[in-house]
Design a protein that fits this description.
5-stranded mixed sheet; 12 helices; 431 residues; single chain; alpha/beta; 21% strand; 17 strands; 10-stranded mixed sheet
Length: 431
């Protein structure tokens, strides 16, 4: 038996996982065994792995999808039972450098004070840019930040970075540490499980490191919310739960206020955009978080993502040209011009677009005009003589829009005041 159990968690990504396995097998350091945990994939992942890799890969097939944390834990528990010294967790959509695991192993062997070490993760679609190089928990903003996110690789980053956590897409963890702090928090199902695992490592007195000599490429395409609100539910629920569990008592009221303001902003924004399904999922996630509902979400809490340009299409009716005044936001103006063209095309309209400097003044005889702004909720001009579009895709063009803009701050204060006592009570009960 080798010293390292390489555990790859897979769900419906046959092409990705096959490439991942191949990259691991091509590692210079070979003191590992590969275990692929399949989360009841509906594609032909299992058959393809068996056919191509046979005895070189041990398959552990779950009868149902246990999520990222549950899938990894199937392999982690098996590795602990077999007596491996280390577990190397890998997402199925990574490609590892040939030196990646060997560098992690040597680093861990030389530093007994380190409990887990992650690789330096690059964007698969843009390999010259770092995706993350360690994760820090921000206790002032109640969030987490990926270190060096989207920074170009220019050779200036430190060779070793210590942080609160690392992404589980490539992390080597001591088996002895897992026995002490437990495996990934399975109740999360998805998201925030690796952040909490790293935080538990630090609480147990061990360091969490990221190693520049261990490089991997990671695809983030699967994490985009494109079809339904599935990722949104888990991201919000587990984010709230983490800070409910670990925020010090003296900061809990401030934490509740910060989260309630953030939840309100999402709900109000999506209602403005006509995306009610997102508002429903966020509120389900919040309610489940404060009441301790964990695990896999019920299908009644996940909804299709629906983006509607009905408001914009209504404004475009009867128009031949749209002038877009950038007002210093040229990139945003280009994006809005693309949106106008898309909305016009979907409505069967032939409309030209022109991007101009400065600020426009409402509808003109030559057509419709918009002025770009960072946020319609921060503009001072409420005359409706000028139509505005902002970075979030919101348009200020009608009396109904104006009502939403004027009443936002008051509505926000009302929402926070109405919810905070209940939220804080649930935090105290769960402490």
């Amino acid at each position: 038996m080798n010293r390292i159990a390489a555990v790859i968690c897979n769900y419906n990504k046959r092409a990705y996982v096959m490439d991942c396995i191949q990259s691991v097998l091509e590692s210079e350091f070979q003191d590992f065994d590969i275990f692929v945990v399949d989360n009841a994939s509906a594609d032909d992942s299992v058959e393809c792995i068996r056919e191509k890799y046979g005895g070189r890969v041990r398959l552990l097939v779950n009868q149902e999808n246990l999520g990222g944390s549950g899938g990894f834990n199937t392999g982690i528990r098996y590795a602990l039972e077999q007596g491996y010294d280390y577990v190397w967790c890998l997402d199925n959509d990574v490609l590892v450098d040939e030196k990646a695991v060997g560098e992690l192993y040597r680093f861990m062997e030389e530093r007994p004070d380190v409990g887990m070490t992650g690789s330096k993760v690059y964007h698969m679609e843009a390999p010259d840019y770092v995706q993350q190089y360690g994760i820090d928990i921000c206790w002032d903003g109640y969030c987490c930040e990926a270190k060096y996110h989207n920074c170009p690789e220019d050779g200036s980053m430190p060779e070793v970075v210590y942080s609160d956590a690392v992404a589980a897409c490539s992390v080597l963890v001591r088996a002895s540490l897992i026995k002490e702090i437990g495996p990934l928090p399975e109740e999360n199902f998805l998201y925030w499980d690796d952040t909490e695992w790293g935080y538990r490592c630090n609480l147990a007195g061990y360091k969490v490191a990221s190693l520049g000599a261990s490089k991997v490429l990671h695809s983030m395409g699967a994490k985009k919310e494109s079809v339904n609100t599935f990722p949104m539910y888990y991201a919000w629920r587990n984010w709230i739960r983490f800070f409910m569990k670990y925020t010090p008592a003296e900061k809990r009221e401030d934490m509740c206020t910060a989260f309630l303001e953030g939840i309100f902003d999402v709900v109000y924004n999506d209602l403005y955009l006509g995306e009610e399904n997102r508002t429903r999922t966020v509120m389900y996630a919040y309610d489940d978080a404060i009441h301790g509902v964990v695990g896999k979400a019920g299908e009644d809490k996940i909804f299709p993502v629906v983006h509607s340009d009905a408001k914009l299409q209504g404004l475009l009716q009867g128009q031949e040209e749209v002038k877009i005044y950038a007002d210093g936001l040229e990139e945003l103006a280009e994006q809005f011009a693309d949106r106008v063209r898309g909305a016009a095309g979907a409505a069967g309209l032939q409309i030209g677009t022109e991007i101009l400097p400065g600020s426009g003044q409402g509808k003109t005889a030559a057509g419709l005009s918009f002025t770009m702004t960072e946020s319609i909720f921060r503009i001072e001009d409420l005359s409706l003589k000028t139509l505005y579009a902002d970075a979030e895709g919101r348009i200020l063009a009608s009396e109904e829009d104006l009502f939403m803009v004027i009443n936002r701050d008051y509505s926000r204060r009302t929402f926070v005041a109405a919810q905070k006592a209940v939220f804080l009570h649930c935090c105290m009960e769960g402490a």
